[in-house]
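User: I've been trying to design a sequence by hand for this structure and keep getting stuck. Would you show me what you'd pick, starting by listing the structure so we're on the same page?

Assistant: Good idea, let's start from the same input. This is the structure you sent:
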């Protein structure tokens, strides 16, 4: 079974983007970490990144269908700045019945007040915030514990 790891806008810049906030690991490093962690639990990580809200919405719809069909357990989703702006992503998760763990590398609550509100949290199963890129491993473990491999 698959776990979809979805990264939103600007996360392709990981490694060089504000390293004090997000660390020095690249998106490729993070995706490798996710594949390794998923494999430990008997799952396969499908890792995708897009800077486009519409593309993220379509992948959430697809995930909802795959979760229903039983070929996917859920989604680890770092929506980037769309977290704080996107009613469309909120609606997509709700409408597709997608099982989503919301993830942020930084502790958004210790940062600017415009990062304190999330449109995604009310439709997320759980939230992993502030553990750096190690959070991706924790989120995958959380999904694996909720939905043990059959
Ligand atoms: C982020 C936090 C967001 O506020 C920000 O816009 C990002 C990354 C994080 O992973 O900490 O792009 O989601």
């Amino acid at each position: 079974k698959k776990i979809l790891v979805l990264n939103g806008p600007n996360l392709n810049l990981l490694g060089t983007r504000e390293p004090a906030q997000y660390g020095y690991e690249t998106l490729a490093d993070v995706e490798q970490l996710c594949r390794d962690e998923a494999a430990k639990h008997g799952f396969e990580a499908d890792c995708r990144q897009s800077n486009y809200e519409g593309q993220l919405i379509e992948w959430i719809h697809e995930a909802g269908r795959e979760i229903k069909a039983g070929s996917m357990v859920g989604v680890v989703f770092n929506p980037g700045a769309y977290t704080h702006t996107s009613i469309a992503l909120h609606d997509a998760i709700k409408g597709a019945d997608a099982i989503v763990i919301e993830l942020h590398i930084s502790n958004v609550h210790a940062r600017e007040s415009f990062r304190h509100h999330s449109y995604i949290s009310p439709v997320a199963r759980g939230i992993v915030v502030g553990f750096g890129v190690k959070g991706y491993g924790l989120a995958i473990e959380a999904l694996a514990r909720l939905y043990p491999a059959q």
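That's my pick for every position. To get oriented when you compare it with your attempt: The chain is about 40% helix and 20% strand. The chain has a mean pLDDT of 96.
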